[in-house]
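Why does residue order matter? Because the sequence determines the fold. Keep that principle in mind as you read this record.
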Amino acid sequence: MTTRQEPPANGRATIIDRHRLVEVLNAGTQFILVTAPAGSGKTILVKSWLESQGATRPYAWASIERGELDPQRFWSTLVTRVRQCLPTDATVDELAPAPAFNAELVIARLIADLELVGILTIVIDDVHEVKRTGVLEQLTSFLGRLPSSTQVVLISRHDPQLGLHRRRLEGQVSEIRLDQLRFTVDESKELLAAAGITLSDNGLQLLHSRTEGWVAGLRLAAVSMAAHPDPERFVVDFSGSERMVAEYLMAEVLDSLPSDVRRLLVNTSILDRVNGALGDLLTGDAGTEGHLSALAEACGFVIPLDTRGEWFRFHHLFADLLAAELRHSQAPEIPNLHMAAAHWLSEHGYVLEAITHALAADDHALVASLLVEHYFSLMLDGRQATVRSLLDTAVSRSDAPELAAVLAADELIGGSLDQAAAHLALAEHRAPEVPEDRRRRFEIMLYVTRLTLARRIGDFQSVLDAPQPAALFAEPLSNEDIAMQSDARALILMNLGIVEVWSGRREDGDQHLTAAEDIARKIRRPYLEVSCQVHRAQSLTWSSFAAARSVAEEVIATTERHGWQNDPVAGAALVVLGSCLVATGRVAAAERAFRRAEETLRSDLEPAVGFVLHTGHGIVNLVKANYAQAITSFLEAERLGTSLASKSPLALMSRCAMLYSAVLANETNLVQKALDELTEAERNSGEVREVIAVRSLANGDAHGALAVLKATVTEAIGVHHRLVLIRSLLLDARARYMMDEVLEAQNSVERALDLAEADELIIPFLFLETTDLLKRHPRHQTAHGGFLTLIQDFLSGRELDGDGGHPRSVAVSLSETELRVLRFLPTNLSSAEIASEIYVSVNTVKTHMRNIYTKLGAHSRSQTVEYARNLSLLSHTVHAG
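Structure:
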């Protein structure tokens, strides 16, 4: 879609009052379809009708770019236009771009928002420009679910395949077609009069007959006759088909213009849009902006695209005829015009337009250079489909080595890791062929792609060992490098930070992730920002599960707000959240988070994230005494974890949890074999000592357990995580009770409670089944009476899970009025009817509904009801009244 919201008020052609068509538009149907060829007056009719309604009905106007390919671009622009036409407090969330896109979620969220907005008209202009079947299918789904308060006007050159046939049968569609749009004789007379032209009745009838009331033809005739010495003779001189009439009239218009203006129009016909500087470049003359402004005022075939009058486009019919004239009169110059336009557009940041013109000029070097420089930025902008189409065209025409690098990055983003690796290897092999002046950017792209691929396949050691390209961090940056460098820096720092966190180098990882997050925030890349945050949350689990959970919940809220609920970044956040919930004993809530994560990550499971996910499943099964399933989960985690850097504590912790399960399952051979395979350093770790102690206690050997635990509980050796020390203390207490060392046992339990309460770490007490230990712990001597009671509640099966049926674990506190509104949401009552029931205004009801949606983390009325019932805020049978 274009950046314009609607046709600007200035520079429009004269608007004729068309009562008979306004009656159709005012019929009140939910859908209005205006379908006719170019030049039929569709857009002017709808715009003038909406303006005549004043402030009684707000409207959002979205115009589709030629050849629109990107679903994300389509929906992002539509959401933006809806947001812009509503009050600032309206509940329509912004849709930010991301590499992955789930249209169904975005549509569901927009529908839910529109239910709260009230009366609104949405205009989608140039629907025929949608070139992807998927977008039409998404638009069909959207139209089929609209609330009755939302009206949609579709403007197209032909009938869009949007499944409106049933709506037609139900009388919900008003249609205006070419025959209705044709001017009557009286309307033709009014149009000519506005241009200062008077014809005899015979001349008027003849003109109307020749143009068949075609609006563009009449407007062109008016422009031509205004400069013609004998308007009556002019009418007699042309005839033929609509196309022939158009060509004749266009020729008349062009012939009447000064030569410099005619050259301007013809030379710039290669462009989808033109401004003063670009027009001056393509003509070699000055004054383009003034000429275009004058033409926009004089006729409806030069159209301003912004209120400042800087950018213009030609009416599509006019553009086609100008392009034909260019091919006829200056064919050899066309490649040079494209090349000049490509360089100007690239220098001024209009990358996709520049690539299009570079392809038209067969400037393969420029195409390759632009794709290398801007590929990651365009992906982050949500322009995947358009870029891939341009890339396919470029690859079919050129074998430039840079294109292999772009293909590698493209396959990587598309999830084809093997193909990405193959293209990357080819690009690296052909690197010496890249000209020196393009080498630095090429190498940066190779590094970003190589780093991202290594992270995705879990080849962490190669990331840690690889030198960073000094060119990436060279200062000062040249102007042309700033855009590429910002995105590239953020991506590199983010990937480095992720690998370092998962490899146990958390200090370095946190530093790199924080730096990447800062860059992402400055360059307004929210997707990169939350990607950094989710891995920072994983790092925080080593120091504070409460802090990690807070960051994970913030990320999940952001993904919901931007429509990224099914993106892998949301899945990674859910894995972290599940880990935090497990640590605090919320096992059922953790299982829900893990299930949601699996749905999100099914096709994009990175080894490190998958490792934590399966480890989480293993711990849940271990707590539930499902030892065989726990072993299976831990072994799957270990399989994925083989790609982690060799010194990562994660792998050791998961291995020991598996061995713990095997001890309890009496899998003695498995335990002994695994212990024999450990290195000396691993056998001396707190995690392994814990496993040996568990095995000793299972065999009744309290002395052996105390001996192996001594180095851990006295902190003679360091432990990777507090959880290890807490569990070791609880095992120490059990061994001491077995030896009747009651005071020492109580001291170990008290130390464990000291370490656990601040972060509410309940899982060690469930992990080891400590009911008997805690029952024997003297209440009058402990400093943790409340926490002790909480743990015993969990041990007795009373999981205090305030999480309801969705994975965001948040405390929900609704006001009394919000609770009153909530009780009506399961009914079919409208906002106005609810307002009447509780004696408040409709706006008050909508405000409370927005607050309820936000507090429950829901995006629709039905979802709110589901979550509220799971939280026991609603009964399962609710009646109105």
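The mean pLDDT is 83.
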